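Title: [Solved] FecR domain-containing protein 3D structure

Original question kept below for reference.
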Amino acid sequence: MNGRRWSPMLLALALSALPLGCTADEKPSAPTAPVRPAPSPRAHLRGLQGAVQVKRATADDWSPAQEDLPLFENDKVRTEAGARADLVFASDGGTVHLGSDSLIGIAETRPRPGQQRTDLTVLRGRIDAELEKPAAQSLSVTTPSATIQAGREIVFQ
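Solution (posted by the thread starter after getting help):
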C-alpha cells in the first residue's frame, strides 16, 4: 500500500523537474552568452602620401596603411619622413592632418552629452585640425607634456 501511495508523488516530482515542452530525452539548451557588438571605427585614414603605417591596439607589429582604413580606439598611426595622412572622424567629419614624421594614437574618448568629442595622443610630429562644427565638436590633443582642447574655445592645460 505504501508503494502505491508514493508512486503518483514520485511521478509528479519527476514531471515537475522537466522544463515545459521537453520530453525526458531532451535537455534544455544552455543560455547563450550575449553577443558584444563590434566596436565602431573612430576615424578613417584618407589622403595617404608616402609611407604611412598603422599599429592596431590588438597587434604587436606595424603594417602598411591603406586608403579609407578604419581606425579604432588605441590604434596608432605613424608617418615616415616626407609622408602625410588625414584622419577623418566618423562621429563628426572633423579632420586631422598628420604631417611628416609623426606618431599619434586614437585615445579612448569619454562622451559628453550634446557634444561630439575626439581625443588624440600626439607622441611625435605635427598635426593640423579642422572642425566642421566647432560649436558642437571638441578635439582634445594630449602630448607627453601638455593637453590642448579645441572647440568653441581653445584651452591650454
